[in-house]
Structures are given as structure tokens and as C-alpha cells.
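Page 42, continued from yesterday. The earlier attempt failed because a stray header line got pasted into the input along with the sequence. Redoing it now with the clean sequence only.
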Amino acid sequence: MQATPTPTDANAHFAVLLSGEVTVTERLKSQIHGARVIAADSGMRHAAALGVTPELWVGDFDSADAGLIESWPDVRREPYPPAKNATDGEIAIETAIERGARRILLVGALGGERSDHAFAHMALAVKLKERGIDVTLTSGEEEGYPLPGAPLTFDLPKGSLFSVLAFADIARLTIEGARYPLHDFDCTFGTTRTISNVAEGPVTIRHTGGPALLLARPNDFSGA
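This time it went through. C-alpha cells are written below.
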């Protein structure tokens, strides 16, 4: 696969359709609007509900049934052998990057039957952020955002739930704009101190060191 020329901002936004469960919401529709789309194997089943036509469909096609394939005869398919060193999702993500992606929406990245895949998507998102690529993971009900350390502000609905997941010890974690704010908190790996917070408006998060992820539920006001 050959990389394409450096893109403009207009075509650097990609969505990758993954195999996890998806709830189509107006928020998700607005996030995917205008994005170039690549489907990974059975992630193609989300295309019709989202009203998008992928420019490419990749994978080993072991989970895309014949009916799904027959429904999209005009979408170019790029098959891979089942015995390979990366998931279909990672192949689709790297293909998007080769085509110029600088912002990637991973649709179907959270939830579903495969918790191992969901964890892998979260870890991949953190690594992609380290490469300078903005990533959002979404199921429609949940959204994930890598936290690189520098202050980031998230426009979450007031009263919605969110958590900060630390994949290692992180130092001086500060959370502002939340019901339970933190200031320079040394967050140890495995703590539940940062689970089930509530947004009071835009939420700003910063820390020093260590991989971490914001997991938000923008439609969940059960903690309000």
C-alpha cells in the first residue's frame, strides 16, 4: 500500500467502522459528517444506519456474511489472509493513516462481544495520539479520548458521566469542570478514584506522564 500526498484539513478526517456494537445518535451523525470512511470486516454493517458509503473495505472477511457483501457490490474490497499479525481494525486504521488521516473516529470501538478488541482499540488510540493523530473512540453511547498529558478540554453535556482510565501510574492529575474535581492528584494504576465523575460543563484534564484515556457517556445522566 502506498501513501497518498499530504492531505488538506478537509480530507484528513476519517472514520473507521469496526465490529463492536453501535447506537446511532445525532451526536454520532454529526461526528462522522464529512469524514472519509473505511470499513473493517463486519464493521461494514454500520454503514447503512449511519448513511455513509466507505471508500474501502478491508479485512479477512471471516465475519462479514455473504448478504452483507452482496449489499455493497460497488465498494472496493481489499482482502487479507486470516493468519496475519494485526486485527482487521488495526489494518483499517493504518490504511486510513496512509491515505492522509490526521483525525480518526473509531466507530464500534467500544463494547460488543469482544472485550479484548475494545481494550486493543483503547491502547491503539493512546499510541496514535503519541504519533500526533487525534482519535475518538465511540459506540454512540460511550466515547473515548486519549489523554496525552497537556491540558485538553472536552465539551461534555452538563450532568453526563465520565471516567478517567489510567493504564499506568500518572502524576499530578487535574480535573476541572466536574462535580468531583482533582488537583495534582497522583493516580496509581488500578485505582477507582477516577471512575464515575459528572460533568458540570466543559471538562479540562491534564496530568504528567503515563498513558490514560477519558471514557465519557454523553447521553447518560444517571449521576446528575
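Notes: The two ends are 48 Å apart (CA to CA).
Reminder to self: strip header lines before submitting.
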